[in-house]
Specification:
The protein is α+β, with helices and mostly antiparallel strands. It has helices at residues 2-23, 191-203; strands spanning 32-39, 44-48, 51-54, 60-62, 66-69, 74-78, 81-85, 90-97, 100-113, 116-119, 124-127, 130-136, 141-146, 152-155, 159-162, 167-170, 175-178. The radius of gyration is 19 Å and the shape is globular. It is built from 2 helices and 17 strands. It has one domain (30-203): Sandwich (Jelly Rolls), CATH 2.60.120.1440.
């Protein structure tokens, strides 16, 4: 009887630990994955529970961190990859996916330079070059905007496909479409963000 009780306690404690690890950023030096490089204003936060903490350049980033911007841009370095967040963007820094840093884009727009795996609710993208991903979460659409030829997109419907041109996944239509012209940050309606992002990458 005592052995059964002890076994049950161990199972409950193990399950509790797994749940805690899934919602709390990993602690300790080994959990540090990068830092904040720059912010445009003070509207950049890390979220822990129901609390928001303002981030500033030099602050460390850990696995599991939930980071969001409001009316500001922000640039981060995560394991050697530069990740630039546009205004009103939310990400979670996830554990490694193989050799690539992995983030979950909950909503908004990012620009990255380096090895990266970007996950959304409907489609994922990986690259070791420059890449922009836009998650229109309210509309269940995701745009993948590569600036190099080393980008791949994947989900359970399409499998894994190379993407060298702007690509969009529409979850409501379960459809992948591709533009005929390459992505040009200078002509984008968000060109001010891309100019700032490219400046961060150049100065890193």
């Amino acid at each position: 009887m005592r052995e059964r009780l002890l076994g049950s306690i161990i199972i409950v404690l193990s399950a509790s630990m797994l749940i805690w690890q899934s919602v709390e950023p990993t602690r300790g030096k080994d959990a540090i994955m990068g830092e904040v490089i720059n912010t445009q204003g003070g509207d950049v936060f890390r979220v822990r529970g129901d609390r928001e903490q303002t981030l500033k350049p030099g602050d460390t980033i850990r696995r599991g961190e939930y980071i969001k911007t409001r009316d500001a841009f922000s640039s981060l370095e995560v394991d050697g990859t530069i990740i630039v967040l546009a205004k009103r963007t939310e990400i979670i820094v996830v554990n490694h996916s193989g050799a690539q840093p992995q983030i979950r884009l909950l909503g908004g727009r990012i620009f990255t330079s380096g090895d990266i795996f970007v996950e959304t609710a409907w489609i994922s993208a990986s690259s070791n070059d420059q890449l922009s991903v836009v998650n229109y979460a309210f509309d269940e659409r995701v745009q993948i905007l590569p600036l190099g030829a080393s980008t791949f997109v994947e989900n359970t419907v399409i499998g894994r496909l190379p993407a060298s041109l702007p690509t969009q996944w529409d979850e409501r239509m379960s459809e992948l479409t591709t533009d005929l012209l390459p992505f040009n940050p200078e002509t984008s309606h968000e060109n001010s963000f891309y100019a700032w992002a490219l400046d961060q990458i150049k100065n890193d």
